[in-house]
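tl;dr need the bound structure. longer version: we got a ligand (copper (II) ion) that a collaborator sent over and nobodys looked at where it sits. i said id run it. heres the input, straight from their email, havent touched it
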Amino acid sequence: MAVRGRVRWWLACAATVAIVLPLGWAWQSSLLPDSYDPADMGYADWGGGPATSHAGHDGTPVADLTADPDQIPDVTTTLTVRDEGERYTVNGTSPGPELRATVGDLVEVTLVNDNVTEGTTLHWHGIDVPNAADGVAGVTQDSVGPGEEFVYRFLADQAGTFWYHSHQLSHEQVQRGLLGAVVIEPDGPPPYEVDALAVLHLYDGVATLNGEEGTATLEAEPGDRVRLRIVNTDNGLAPVWVTGTDFTVVAVDGTDVNEPGLLRDATVRVPAGGRVDLGFTVPDTGVRVDFAGSTAMVAVTDPTAGTTPGVPSATTTLDLLAYGEPTDLGFDPSAPDRIFDYRIGRRPGFLDGRPGMWWSINGHLYPDVPMFMVSEGDVVVFRIKNTSGETHPMHLHGHHAVVLSRNGEAATGSPWWVDSLEVAEGETYEIAFLADNPGIWMDHCHNLPHAAQGLIAHLMYDGVQSSYLLGGEHHNEPE
Ligand SMILES: [Cu+2]
């Protein structure tokens, strides 16, 4: 009996160790890393291209990757952020003021944190800024504390519709309104009489359009050509449709569509974080644009008056994979230097020491996820595959990528350039871009609570090292 008891005791010990040790290891490795060295973060993924031994260190610090410090800015502005209790405001309003510049301008924005105790930053969503101006707390800068300032400088080198938002505790700060639109106008006279914004945002679950509930007036006369810039600042997809006239999708995510065809009775889907610019001429009989069935904009008169409001009139959904006409991409994606898999799943484990069901990337949980390593000049392909059970609007910082295919079906229309791409459950997208903007760039889900649940990876250029850390004295928490 004594021998059997001892054997049992040892078996129990061995079983405990077999369970506790791996759990302890999983817990330990889920804690936030001390650096952006890929070996510290997770592991370096070289995408089938050449690897070097000094990834993440012995390189140019992120803080040095700036716009020309000697260039005099063309546009200078100050954005002061306040915590007003329920909402965050920028210069006293939410959405904050619209920032306008002309293509080619050097933009200089001073962020002032009035009273946001947990700190804040500004990220320029869709603008391929220099890395030091990307505004991601703990990656490209420290969170800006109350009473502190930070200066962002970037060249507005692409005309289009963009937006700014906090990237410190973004799942809270963006949702509570720390955001605004950025419009970069083309050089020369605009081909539109009316250039309007439609910033969509849910405050505490209440849908708003440019900060107001309900139906807004679009200040336009019959015959006016309108460019309507829709910015989806929410965590979910926004279907948009036009009643009363034909229209075109002029631009997607800040890039003009090549030879867009006329659309009628079509719903356009704007992913979380994404932008779509619509073009149309106002008919005598009026026009109405509906946003997700919850807000709308009307010019002249409402052509849907008398029908049930908020019901889509559109019978089809626009597929951007086959919209417009092909044209030159400016690079050749057919022989990429690196091909990365970005497989999104879900599994149990630890996230920063917390047990739960978390999003996984290539089977790993944040921060033990791949660091996607590139060299400047590389042609890069990402294969994004989503089998996680939910949809994910994926956002790569610092670059625009072109969609090559969806579920194996090649793109046939205008180059579909994206910075915010809706990847639904079961879908696979192949996207490509030229690695032409050195830095460490987030590549994450823009359903921001999902990012806070670990759906984050980074694209890192060889020869670049971070100057910042997650957590620490500045409490950097980008998600
Ligand atoms: Cu997501």
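gonna send this back to them w/ a short note. The pocket of copper (II) ion is lined by residues 392, 445, 447, 450, 455 (CB under 6 Å).
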